[in-house]
Write a structure and sequence with these properties.
Blueprint lengths: L22 E11 L4 E7 L11 E5 L9 E4 L8 E7 L7 H4 L7 E5 L16 E7 L4 H6 L3 H6 L2 E8 L6 H10 L6 H4 L3 E7 L10 H7 L1 H6 L9 E6 L2 H12 L14 E3 L6
Parallel strand pairs: 7-8, 7-10, 8-9, 10-11
Antiparallel strand pairs: 1-2, 1-6, 2-5, 3-4, 3-6
């Protein structure tokens, strides 16, 4: 797939202000533009930075004395030597209007503590893990699907990713395609990972909102599974607020209950979003 050209702008390189206390100043390693709405980028990883796959961190740019920070899920697994992010481009977003213009060599600010509920520790033991996402909500699952611990804890891992257009599926499709060849987890993933991609606007082999697919039972037919069962299934949800609310209600209708880091259960959601 061809990448979208980086936006040209006179202010593309952010001004260099000192990093605030308690913040890492990291170098951009690479940037890839998938569409005019989506891009990913990788930054250097501080030697002291530790996180659990699925967590998010606050990031910003050194373009002001008091920089704006927003929550971004870390898309790279906890073992990665770099930090990866997957972002939407918001034309008037306080951060993303500038972040989408970064290029290798630029500086990104990152707070030193990660957090979040989309972590394996927030779920009770089960045999099947569902990671349900829309848009850039796939980011924490891009981390978890590449973590050996995920396959140590679950016999089967199913990622659903719904976008408006086909091109917006590319990030997840490439990750799923490359899993089997990954030297660290390739053998673990073999036959145990299912990628279920759908669109809602542009014609694709599978179409429909994830809520409709759950309600109709088509999701379970497509993946060759039985409906959600609290005895075996564990569910993680990440996407828009409306999507989270609706899917959470559907999953709870099958008897699954919401958990947290302090009280693990069968279902977890993430409510931190980019702006």
């Amino acid at each position: 797939m061809n990448t979208i050209a980086r936006p040209d702008a006179a202010d593309a390189r952010p001004a260099d202000f000192p990093a605030p206390a308690g913040v890492f100043a990291e170098r951009v390693v690479s940037v890839r533009h998938y569409t005019d709405r989506l891009f990913s980028f990788r930054i250097t990883r501080p030697a002291s930075f530790r996180f659990r796959s699925g967590e998010f961190v606050m990031i910003g740019l050194p373009n002001a004395e008091k920089p704006i920070f927003r929550a971004y899920s870390i898309a790279s697994p906890s073992w990665d030597e770099e930090i990866e992010f997957f972002s939407i481009k918001v034309p008037d977003g306080p951060l993303t209007q500038h972040l989408q213009k970064i290029q290798p060599g630029d500086t990104v600010l990152m707070r030193q503590k990660s957090t979040g509920t989309l972590v394996l520790d927030a779920l009770t033991p089960g045999s099947r893990l569902w990671m349900i996402s829309t848009g850039t909500g796939i980011a924490p699952f891009a981390s978890l699907m590449r973590d050996p611990e995920t396959y140590e804890k679950f016999e089967q891992v199913i990622l659903t990713h719904t976008t408006r257009d086909v091109a917006e599926l590319a990030y997840g499709e490439e990750l799923a395609r490359d899993l089997g060849a990954d030297p660290l987890i390739g053998e673990l993933v073999n036959g145990r990972f299912v990628h279920h991609a759908t669109t809602t606007r542009e014609a694709f082999v599978r179409m429909g909102r994830i809520t409709s697919l759950i309600e109709s039972g088509q999701l379970f037919k497509d993946t060759g599974t039985s409906p959600f069962d609290p005895a075996t299934d564990r569910v993680m949800i990440c996407g828009s607020m409306d999507m989270i609310r609706d899917v959470k209600a559907l999953v709870e209708g099958f008897g699954l209950t919401e958990g947290s880091n302090n009280k693990p259960a069968e279902l977890v959601v993430e409510r931190a979003f980019v702006g």
